[in-house]
């Protein structure tokens, strides 16, 4: 059995104390060690500069590796870039804040624009043959909106989604967040939601990435959609 690399990225600013980390870690601990190389990046422990939004000046300036990564040795986004590029399965976990994913998740998405821009502007498909999934946690509601936003972005950078690509749980919307913590630590049904997401992503990766005959999926999507409008306006040729 080929070893698959699975990467989890926790995007709560509360880091290892957070509920999203707890459930991500619980899920990863339940995955068999056999044939799996597991890594969790706690994004709040990294020095991550916000995106400089060079894309908005000139789309061609948004390159991979990103200009911040090239010029600022203090910035640690490279750990996330390299982690994603080395992984077969990538799972992001995020809390819900006022109906949206975390600020840190948004910062990472904007920095990952360099990988999406590689597709849409530079026509170089960098992210391919990788499975994506999400873990979303809140106290009241909003997880379908968050899932939609995340799936929208991550399909654009090139991740492939299994059926039911995200797991979510929200508490009782009663301001008793302490009870949330007790429940996620002790309720096996809640843990199972997140364990299933990770296991499902790994099972799907095993089913589609590597055939028992040894052939490995090598699918590169066509990514020239924006060429048409650029050519029409002749703005960035
Ligand atoms: C500023 C703020 C806004 C929040 N907004 C929402 C929300 O819109 N929907 C929801 O379900 N939970 C909301 N919550 C609750 C958190 O998502 C919840 O406590 C979650 O477990 C925190 O995850 P963490 O421990 O991983 O940081 C909010 C929490 C904070 C601090």
What would you note in describing this structure?
This protein has a five-stranded parallel sheet, with helices on both faces. It has helices at 19-30, 67-71, 77-86, 103-111, 113-120, 143-157, 177-186, 188-209, 225-233; strands at residues 4-10, 36-42, 89-95, 131-138, 166-170. The protein contains nine helices and five strands; from the N terminus they run E-H-E-H-H-E-H-H-E-H-E-H-H-H. Strand 1, helix 1 (19-30) and strand 2 (36-42) form a beta-alpha-beta unit. With 237 residues, the chain is an alpha/beta fold. The chain has a single domain, classed as Rossmann fold (3-Layer(aba) Sandwich). Helices cover 42% and strands 14% of the residues. Bound molecules: flavin mononucleotide. The site of flavin mononucleotide has 19 residues, from helix 1, strand 4 and helix 7. Flavin mononucleotide binds at residues 12, 14, 18-20, 95-99, 137-142, 170, 177, 180.
Report a brief summary of the structure.
The chain is of the alpha/beta class.
Chart the SSEs and their pairings:
Layout: E1 4-10, H1 19-30, E2 36-42, H2 67-71, H3 77-86, E3 89-95, H4 103-111, H5 113-120, E4 131-138, H6 143-157, E5 166-170, H7 177-186, H8 188-209, H9 225-233
Bound molecules: flavin mononucleotide.
Flavin mononucleotide binds at residues 12, 14, 18-20, 95-99, 137-142, 170, 177, 180.
